[in-house]
Amino acid sequence: MSSLLYTPIPEQALEDQSVEQNQFHEIHLENNTILQTEKVEEGYKIVRIISTDCQDYLNPMFQPGSVINFKN
Q1: Name one Pfam family in it (predicted).
Q2: CA dist 66 to 5, 26, 48, Å?
């Protein structure tokens, strides 16, 4: 018998607990945009954008997979 699980975030509901999870970091920008990132050697790789402004999704600087770094 199979079952069906309805969830908006299936990767979290079905993830294997024995697998090491990636550590994501949220970067909050001044215009209330949130970038979910993953730490890499070069800086932070953008995983996803959380924004209510449609223009943020068209901005090539915020493209998922792009790497950003911050200089102190």
Answers
A1: YlzJ
A2: 33, 15, 10
